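Justification of resources, computational component.

The compute hours requested in this renewal are based largely on the per-chain cost of generating structure records like the one below. Each record pairs the submitted sequence with a full structure-token output. That output is archived, and it is also reused by downstream analysis tasks.
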Amino acid sequence: MAESLSVHDRVVAAVNRYNDSFRHPSLRKLVVSELYALFPDEPACAGVKLKWPEPWPNRDNPGVYLMFGAERALLYVGKAWNLNSRISSYFRYTSDGSRRCELRHPWKYTPMLVATIAVDEDKFFEAAGLEEYLIETLQPLDNERGAKGESAT
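The structure output for this chain reads:
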């Protein structure tokens, strides 16, 4: 059955397991945002409601962000004290004035979509644990520790 789930659904399922296994029941459940299209005109972004240059989901919060490629494969999981600042460090407007998205740095696989998971500001430290859990569980293509099983240094 796991093979029939979309990658986004697998992320949601992993976050739900994290909520049930590692968080106190009195805490607010962590929730995965809708997908956000970086390149809305690309076929890989068809059907996505949130689009560049709209604000990132959960932009003013600490949390975890996930980058997905053209085939919606999970490329990367990262954490941030401020999701807006961190995600914005990867992307910018094109220099031609069109307000389209452009990558600031080369990637092995081009990110096409972003999702975020906000953590409570007074529990910002939880982003690190959630990030490690998602890397270990979901094995993103561009996270070295997840791909090779290396420990954090």
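Residues 2-141 form a domain with the GIY-YIG endonuclease fold (CATH 3.40.1440.10). Helices lie at 7-22, 83-88, 126-138, 144-148.
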